[in-house]
Write a structure and sequence with these properties.
Blueprint (H helix, E strand, L loop, with lengths): L6 H17 L10 H8 L1 H20 L6 E5 L7 H10 L2 E4 L3 H10 L3 E7 L6 H14 L4 E6 L17 E4 L4 H23 L20
């Protein structure tokens, strides 16, 4: 009398059938290459391949700002101190500027200058800086702007302050927040450029009047 297949046998058959389906062996058999299998399973080669993948990924994705220049408008020992520490770790060059007119000059001279970080508190708050910054945003829409202030209640990676900046951070932000701001500011800036290129004037966001006189945004 034939015995019924055991639970283990049924499970093994199921796994084999699933693997055949996933690998396409049921439709087009592929000869087994033992030498290739040994090369793939070699721990040393696997580690080398993984290292190469992560090195390439780091160069292309994790640190896109390497060897780029970031402009800063603010004291090195103030709210932007963490940015200088971050830049040294990421191999990013920082150029301190005295005003937005200098930012315009550098943008015209060097293609690798595409980001500006501003200590808003040192500029006297948004009430004193609104008109100048808003004009700069329209004149140099392709320059990513990140505002840093102690008055911000939280980090903002959305489009809430798009007419003034692409991202705004608290002065006490973490290095993780800085990393995230580098990604999100680029995404938001693309949207700002799109709005600036729209023929209709109404495409530009209209800042609230209260923002012109507020101490913080």
């Amino acid at each position: 009398m034939m015995q019924a297949p055991s639970a283990r046998s049924r499970f093994s058959s199921l796994v084999t059938a699933l693997m055949d389906d996933v690998l396409g062996r049921a439709q087009s058999p592929v000869p087994f290459d033992k030498a290739m299998a040994l090369r793939i399973s070699s721990p040393a080669k696997e580690r080398q391949d993984q290292q190469k993948v992560w090195t390439d990924f780091d160069k292309k994705s994790l640190n896109p700002w390497k060897r780029q220049t970031v402009m800063t408008l603010g004291s090195r020992n103030g709210a932007l101190s963490k940015w200088y520490t971050w830049s040294a770790d990421k191999e990013v060059s920082i150029t301190a500027i005295s005003g937005l007119n200098k930012a315009r000059e550098l943008r015209a001279q060097r293609e690798c200058v595409s980001l500006l970080v501003i200590d808003l508190d040192e500029r006297g708050g948004i009430g004193h800086f609104f008109e100048e910054l808003y004009q700069f945003r329209q004149d140099c829409a392709d320059v990513i702007v990140i505002l840093v202030s102690e008055t911000f209640s939280d980090d903002d990676f959305d489009l809430n302050r798009i007419w003034l900046c692409d991202v705004s951070l608290r002065a006490a932000s973490t290095f993780t927040a800085i990393d995230l701001s580098m990604t999100m500011s680029g995404i938001n800036n693309a949207e700002w450029q799109r709005r600036c290129k729209t023929p209709r004037r109404s495409a530009l966001p209209c800042p609230p009047r209260s923002a012109r006189h507020a101490r913080s945004v």
